[in-house]
Structures are given as structure tokens and as C-alpha cells.
Amino acid sequence: MSSIAARQPLLTEGPIARTLLVFALPILGSTVLQSLNGSVNAMWIGKFLGEAALTAVSNANLILFLLLGAVFGLSMACTILIGQSLGARNMLEAKRVVGTGVTFFVSVSVLVAIAGYCGTPLLLRALGTPADAQVFAVAYMRIIFIAVPSMYFYNFLMMTLRGAGDSRTPFVFMAMSVVLDIVLNPLLIFGIGPFPKLGIAGSATSTLIAQSVALVALLSTLYARKHFLRLTRSELAFLKPDFTILRALVFKGLPMGLQMIVISTSAMIMIHMVNSYGSKTTAAYGAATQLWTYVQMPAMAIGAAVSSMAAQNVGAKLWDRVSRITKVGVLYNFLLSGALIGLIYLFNHAALNLFLPNDGEALALAQHLNSIAVWSFMFFGVTFVLFGVVRSTGAVMPPLVILFISMWLFRPPFALLLAPHIGADSIWWSFPLGSLASMLMAMGYYKWGGWRRAHMLSSPIEPQEEKAATPQAPTTGQGVPASVE
């Protein structure tokens, strides 16, 4: 093995509990920072530019969420491929994945940026954006589309580093981006000091600048540190797409991206049902979901960490260690998610009072629905962890099917059937039912499903050392010699 390979941070060694926790915490921190950034930006726009501007941003962010949701799956596929390659000590395959990923993500992001910039008015009309918000939305969205290449490429680098066992570096540069965005927002919105007054376009411009600066700084740091996955001048041939890897990124990544779409569309169905009970119920639900966003963060972070960690161990064929990673991940979910849920139950009134007037009807409704639904997120956390493990081998369709069944075939029908009998409580009880159903199905697939036999590529990634004796044997089906660096 080369000296470069020897320097990679390994998730196949050391105590599992400590390694997983240390790896998951920066991922959790990144998620919290992103949510904080969105909240601060919305505050500036909503309070100082008016309701129409805030409506514009809400509509624009819905489009952005769908775009980032799709790329999340592709990035996750890249994370798993790199993790498996490094677990198998196959540095050559890992660099092939990086090279193909760079070309793919840059190409896709440029096409999305051009199409989105030109089609912004059409997209906003298709969403039914109110007329008074469209002027704001077009100005905001077009700059966001200019920022898409930086967003996509940063996301790709972040997921690549996580696949390589490094979650701290992405967190540091995410923090840099968020701080820069928060600082620039008021300066560019209001034209403070030497900065131009751009209004709502200033908020989007601050995002563009922050993302671009963070991306350039991250790339510069990786090359300055001589990161083992960087492509040197002699390795630029890896930028030519390997079609077997490209196929895996698309066909394994899209189902993972669709999971995000299933979750968001299910949420849209539920809010439509909640709206039918009036504005106070909707306000109560909106306040509760603000808290639910933070409750879900530990489970999502652990699920992402488990996926990266399991991928390296799958590549190394350490199946006993994969099983122990699953158990530790589930335990951490109960500890971290359970602690947050316990705090919400303990301070239910005070927490909801942050978003709703004191002693109002909506506050009482929010406390009631929280008491019914919030505990069920521990079940959903188990599902996230199990999904993180099974997708580390390349088994991506069963999690998508399970989510679809629980979120589309359990939640809405249950709420509709019981609505005439128990009213809005039918919606609140549909959350525990859906979460329990998804957990039981995920546990069944983990125990009895064929996920251990799944592959990201057409054949398992083999250790590079085993290929050294027969350097002409391809590792990806493209006939590229697997020579040792």
C-alpha cells in the first residue's frame, strides 16, 4: 500500500462507539448550522422586506430543496463508493470515483444553472407563486441558480470527504460559509457601508459569495495538505468518466434522492390536511414542526455517519463490525433523540411559546399534538440508522419502497379514515403509526433481506493489492489496468 493510502483516516479500526460518535457530531453540527442559516436569512427578509419577499423566498427554497434533494442521493452514492474502495484499500478505484464524480457534478450543475436561470419565471408560475411575490422571487432565484455550481460541487466534496472518513473538515468550511452568509446578508440587503443596496437579491448574493468562498478555500486546503484523494496533474485522466461508476452514481443515487422527495411530498399532503382544520391548527402544527426539525437531526446525522462507516467496513469485508456499527448507531439514536424528546416533553409549553403567543388556543393545540406525535421520532430514527447500514452495500430500492409505504400508504389513509371519528387527532396519530410501520419494515429487511449481497458496481470492489499481480484486470469493467500507484 502506498504511503498516501496509509494516511487515510480509517473507519475500519478502533473502538466503534467512540469512532462513530466523533464522526457523527460534525455532521450533526453541519445540519444545525444550515438550519440556523436559513432561519437568520428568513428573519432579515421577513422582518425588513415584507411578507411578499418572504413568500418569494419560501417558493424559491422549495425549488432549491428539490434540486438539492436529487443531488443528495448522487452525492451519497459517491460517499458509499469511496468508502467501499478505501475499506478495500483500493486507492485507484477511489480516485476513479473522485474523477468521474468531479466531471459529472460540474457538468450537471452548469446545465441546471443555465436551465434554471432561463426558466425561473416559468418555474415560479408553475408553483403558483403569488403575483406580488414574483418580482422578488425572480430576482432571488436567478442568483441562487448562479450559485448552484458552487453548491453542488461543495456538496460533492463534503460527501467525498465523509466517505473517506473525515467529517470535521466539511464542518469547518460549512461553518465558514454560514458565518459569511449571515454577516453579508444585512450588508447586501440594506447597502451598509461600501456594499451596494440589493434588497432581496442581496440575500441570494450573500449565499453565492459564501458558498463560492468556502468552496475555493476547501479546495485550496485539500491541495495544500496533499490530501490522499486529490487528483494530481498526472492523474487528470481520471476526469474522463468511467461509465460503470457513472451508472452506479445515477442508478444507485437517484433512489436515495427520491427518498427525500417522498418525505417532502408526504409532508405537503399532511399540511394540506391540517389546513382543513383552520389557521389555529395550522399554526400549532407549524410550531410543532419547527421543534421536530431539530428532533430529527441527531437521527439523520447518525444515519449518515453509519452509512460512511459501514461502507468502509463492507469494502474491508468486516461483516461482524458492520453488525456492531448498526447496534451502536441504534443505541445512539435512542440516547440523543430520546434526550431531545425528553426535553421537549419537560419544556413543552416553553418550547412552543417561542413560536406561538402565550396562553392562546394554538399553543394548547400544539402541546396536545406534540404529546401524541413527538415520541415517535425515535422509531423513525431507528429506520434512518438501518437505512444507513443497508444502503452502504448498494441496497437502495428497499428503503425507498419502505418509505413510500409508510409515508404514503399508511399516514394519509389512516388520517382520512379516522378523521370523521377523532378529527385532527387522526393526523397526529398517523405520525406514530407511519414511524412504527417504517421501523418494523426496516428491521425486517435488515434481518431477512438480501442487502448483504447487494453491490454498488456490477461486481464487488476488490483490494488493490490483490490486483497487483495481474495489472491488466479491470476494476470497473472499463478495461483500465488496476496498477498500483
From TrEMBL:
Chief subcellular location: membrane
Keywords: Cell membrane, Membrane, Transmembrane, Transmembrane helix, Transport
Membrane topology: Multi-pass membrane protein
Chain segments annotated as transmembrane: 20-40, 60-82, 102-124, 136-157, 169-192, 198-224, 245-271, 291-310, 330-352, 372-390, 402-421, 427-446
Species annotation: Dyella solisilvae
Pfam entry (one): MatE
Species classification: Bacteria, Pseudomonadati, Pseudomonadota, Gammaproteobacteria, Lysobacterales
Glycosyltransferase among keywords: no
Localization terms from the record: Cell inner membrane
A Gene Ontology cellular-component term: plasma membrane
Gene Ontology molecular function, alphabetical: antiporter activity; xenobiotic transmembrane transporter activity
Protein name: MATE family efflux transporter
Lipoprotein keyword on record: no
Disordered as annotated region, ranges: 462-485
